[in-house]
Amino acid sequence: MVLWRREGFAEDAWAFLADDAEAPETGSIVVSLKRWLAEREALASRTGPVGVAVDAGADAQAHLPELANRPLVALAFAKFADGRSFSYARLLRDRHGFKGELRAVGEVLIDEIPLMLRCGFDSFDVTNAPTLAVLEAGRLPGPPIHYQPGSGGDEAPAGVRSWRTISAARQG
Amino acid sequence: MYHYDDFDAAFVAARVEQFRDQVARRLSGELTEEQFRPHRLMNGLYLQLHSYMLRIAVPYGTLNSRQMRKLAEIARKYDRGYGHFTTRQNIQYNWPALKDTPDILAELSSVEMHAIQTSGNCIRNVTADHYAGVAHDEIADPRPYAEILRQWSSLHPEFSFLPRKFKIAVNGAAHDRAVIQAHDIGLQVVRNNEGEIGFTVYVGGGMGRTPFIGRKVREFLPERDLLAYIEAILRVYNLEGRRDNKFKARIKILMHEKTLETLRDEIETEFAARDAKALDLPPEDVARVAAFFAPPELEPKKPVSDRVERRKSKDSRFASFFASNVVAHKVPGYVVVTVSLKAIGAVPGDASADQMDAVADLAEDYSHDELRVSHEQNLILPHVALDDLPAVYDRLASVDLATANAGAVTDIIACPGLDYCTLATARSIPVAQRIAQRFGDGARARSIGPLKINISGCVNACGHHHVGQIGILGLERAGEETYQITLGGSADENAAIGQITGPGFSSENIVGAIDTIVETYMGLRRRDDETFIEAFRRVGLAPFKEALYERSAGSDI
Lengths: 172, 557
Fold this sequence. Notes:
Chain A is α/β, with parallel strands linked by helices. Chain A has one domain (2-139): TIM Barrel, CATH 3.20.20. Helices cover 26% and strands 26% of the residues of chain A. In chain A, the strands form 2 sheets. Chain A has an 8-stranded mixed β-sheet. A 3-stranded antiparallel β-sheet of chain A has the order 9-11-10, with no helix packed on it. In chain A, helix 3 links the parallel strand 6 (72-77) and strand 7. The longest helix of chain A has 12 residues, at 33-44. Chain A starts with a strand and ends in a 5-residue tail after the last strand. Chain B is α+β, with helices and mostly antiparallel strands. Helix content of chain B is 37%, strand content 17%. Chain B is built from 18 helices and 21 strands. Chain B has helices spanning 6-27, 33-42, 65-78, 101-109, 143-153, 226-240, 251-258, 260-272, 283-291, 306-314, 316-325, 353-366, 389-398, 429-439, 443-448, 507-524, 532-539, 542-551; strands spanning 45-47, 52-56, 62-64, 82-85, 91-93, 127-128, 168-171, 185-191, 197-203, 215-222, 326-328, 334-339, 350-352, 370-373, 379-385, 413-414, 453-456, 470-477, 480-487, 499-500, 505-506. In chain B, helix 1 (6-27) packs antiparallel against helix 4 (101-109) and helix 7 (251-258) crosses helix 8 (260-272). The longest helix of chain B is centred in the N-terminal third of the chain and has 22 residues, at 6-27. The radius of gyration of chain B is 23 Å and the shape is globular. At the A-B interface, helix 3, helix 4 and strand 9 of A face helix 1, helix 2, helix 5, helix 6 and helix 9 of B.
């Protein structure tokens, strides 16, 4: 697994913990939503930051607002064709004021990454080899101009029509 | 009609290059078919029985002559010399090679066309009334709204991986010619008491194996809120639509399971929580897009043409064509001409490259360079001067496009069926051909009057059989094709799902069964102008059932 951000490949400072693994006293950890809900107070007494990993489903939707202050939320794409996490991302960014790191995990493929960026994701756990190859080549596919406002924070209005935007950070 | 500006052109060009790269990665084996599938689908490329099929968007069915000529050229160069116009106002080619598809898309972009989102689990091509801008009963032209929705939905970052496909239709007239209540979202343009434009919003219509008529979720949605409200519907659907069973994944099932009231409350809650600035649709932006659809300047003329009247009196075929394929334009002295793609015995919706060129020439010479594709799988010349009608008719006749059957028993809507489609369970096209041959284009067919027959070759219902006045559904039973009949469906503002008559009929007997239904109707109608659907609504299913299963006892069916 390799971590990619808009700026390029990066070291991962976060440790993803299994539900039965003991939480270390220090360091940045990510726990499942279920564990975080059950052990929220105990985890808060640690010295290191705690992120939350969220699978798509009813629990995710119900508890989304409570995640607004987390330093990291990891949203899962169990299959790339399951698009629910696109909506969770936009809700977190646009409605709940989430300012932390929003990570895409699971089946993260090259042609979805531009859409994920536009929904407010800013880091990506990538395992798919062809995806890594295109990211290494430094080119993201797809138009840098858009017909709807995004939540990625890098878009400016484009021209006269209210729904059009352009990504400042990207070249075609 | 709409014209691309630099932004639109750059967007489509970038999309073509992205698809070219995806095809190259598929051809090299880097992408598996499973990984390639969503990308090819989002560009209208299906894998069919014999070949790939490429579906090209004709947004809200509007075309100019240059675009139609390009479609003809693609048919010649990359296909087998023809194309198939669909019930969603699109055109599909049945025989393109995968390696050619990026070039086809590049050629299309040169005439401001694309195949974006003509398939896949995303927001599909937005459809509209094919008489938009020319109908007498129009509140407002639906196409500017359809165009705005087309743009807003293109590569939407949040809604490209929905539970299932999502179809939106817009109707701007009092009479619904866009079947809006059979769509995931149906928008009816209305004016409120203050004279302001808005929309009545229907959600949850759809065909397929579980048909539903759309339910009203909003009586009056102000124009300004169009995009924000649609986004709210899509978000609720993306989050809550079922993903465990693709046959239960459409929003119609979500509505059915949640109830109208609950789903409406969720949509309204989501809408109320929106960032009010984000998707506000300012009237000046609507006006900018609407300006593209300004009607051509037509000098009003005499509503009766001596030239047409003379020709009608001495040419009965022309008179029939005038009676069935020509309706009045909102400007006196002009007409809207339906070019039937249902010649007796032909494949419904198919047009040859030569026919496409001929229609393009006619549009340029006689219809202000404009054409429409109807969801009934015909073409429309929307702005023809009445005096030009004989000339238009003669040129249509010279390419076998003057069949006088618009809206008649032989104007059959049919999906491609088992002749092309991997999903099909039975053939549709040969059944349509044989029914058309049975009724022909003589006095008998004319005496039947308006009658809509729809044929689907499987439960997915691409031929919209549920809303056909006579619907035919092709199924497979113990290795044999069998055809189930429904009666009383309706695709307009009185939308209704047809009722099943009873056991299905074999391929051999289906044409006789349709004949029996038509004869039964002819026998019980009160006047010659009581249409099939009016008569059916008066008498119900019983007399037809009796004729099909009891009286004739299979002897003549």
